[in-house]
């Protein structure tokens, strides 16, 4: 079980309703072991996925069919933004790129903010040349 908590003078307080529901499952008087870790900006994480969902809606039908899923689209854009590793494929007998994880424990706040900006640049430079950033940002609010 993972909970997002805010440290206050009164103790650790659940950040969201989901976290409060999870905390309520813990039995009073029981002892629990926890690992404390500062989390990345959750709102930026949500905005990151909203960025992809919004961009997906702007893709043409042919582009959506090419990628087949939003996940494939996201991984392709992340790799184009440089968020990938080079590994040797034994089947192909060549070096290939594979996308890196963006999980909270793999990417810190600073690196994630950089990735957000790089990904947004790729989306506009490659896929959304026909709209302005302002137009996109106005639509992004709806995601």
List the helices and strands and how they pair.
Elements: E1 5-8, E2 11-14, H1 17-24, H2 42-58, H3 61-67, H4 70-80, E3 84-89, E4 94-99, H5 109-127, H6 133-140
Antiparallel strand pairs: 1-2, 3-4
Helix pairs in contact: 2-5
Give keywords.
single chain; two-stranded antiparallel ribbon; 49% helix; two-stranded antiparallel sheet; alpha+beta; 143 residues; 6 helices
Shape: globular
> What structural class do helix, strand and pairing data support?
alpha+beta
Largest beta sheet, briefly? 2 strands, antiparallel
Q: Report strand %.
A: 5-15%
What is the rounded Rg? Answer: 19 Å
Residues in helix, %: 40-55%
Order of strands across the main sheet: 1-2
User: How many β-strands, per DSSP?
Assistant: 4
Q: What's the average pLDDT?
A: 92
Distance between the ends:
27 Å
**How do the SSEs run, as a string of H and E?**
EEHHHHEEHH
Given the structure, what is the number of helices? Answer: 6
Query: Ranges with pLDDT <50 over ≥5 residues?
Result: none
Describe this structure in words.
This protein has helices spanning 17-24, 42-58, 61-67, 70-80, 109-127, 133-140, and strands at 5-8, 11-14, 84-89, 94-99. 49% of the residues lie in helices and 14% in strands. Helix 2 packs parallel to helix 5 (109-127). The model has no long low-confidence stretch (mean pLDDT 92). A hairpin with a 2-residue loop joins strand 1 and strand 2. With 143 residues, the chain is an alpha+beta fold. The strands form 2 sheets. A two-stranded antiparallel sheet has the order 1-2. It has a two-stranded antiparallel ribbon with strand order 3-4. The two termini are 27 Å apart.
């Amino acid at each position: 079980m993972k909970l997002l908590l805010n440290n206050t003078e009164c103790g650790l307080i659940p950040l969201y309703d989901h976290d409060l529901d999870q905390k309520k499952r813990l039995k009073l008087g029981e002892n629990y072991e926890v690992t404390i870790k500062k989390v990345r900006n959750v709102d930026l994480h949500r905005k990151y996925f909203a960025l992809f969902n919004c961009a997906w809606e702007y893709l043409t039908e042919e582009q959506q069919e090419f990628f087949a899923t939003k996940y494939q689209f996201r991984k392709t854009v992340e790799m184009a933004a440089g968020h990938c590793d080079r590994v040797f494929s034994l089947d192909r007998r060549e070096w290939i790129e594979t996308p890196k994880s963006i999980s909270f424990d793999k990417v810190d706040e600073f690196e994630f903010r950089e990735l957000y900006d790089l990904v947004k640049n790729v989306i506009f430079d490659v896929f959304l040349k026909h709209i302005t950033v302002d137009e996109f940002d106005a639509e992004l609010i709806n995601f």
